[in-house]
Amino acid sequence: MALFQMRLNKGADGDIMAWLNGQDDKTAAVKAAIRQAMISEPADQPAAPDLGAIRAVIEAALDERFAGAVLGMAVGESVEDPALAGKLDAMF
Question: pLDDT by residue (tens digit) across 40-85?
């Protein structure tokens, strides 16, 4: 099993977020959107998943998870985890 995450922008991706908020099962909705995009592509073209729909699911999940949470840190405190930063740099 693979884990996939993405970030949505509330302004640019608001339509996707609104669609996702109306879905009872966000994971199933994203999977269905990807599968639909795969079958609607011409056979000689690689399928392109609806990345916006995937981003919307992840944004909605984060919004749900951190609703009402207060996140912060002291002024001057480092926000970067060197190990995590290295892993992210290796991905891109």
Answer: 766 666 667 788 888 888 888 888 888 777 666 666 666 677 888 8
pTM: 0.41
Burial code (b: 16+ CB inside 10 Å, e: under 16) for 20-38 equals: beebeebeebbeebbeeee
> What's the CA angle centered on 3, arms 13 and 18, to 5 degrees?
20
Q: Taking the alpha carbons of 25, 56, 36, 39 in that order, is the dihedral positive or negative? A: negative
Angle at 33 between CA 37 and CA 2, to 5 degrees: 100
Two tokens, residue 32? 């269905």
Cβ pair 6, 58 in contact under 8 A: yes
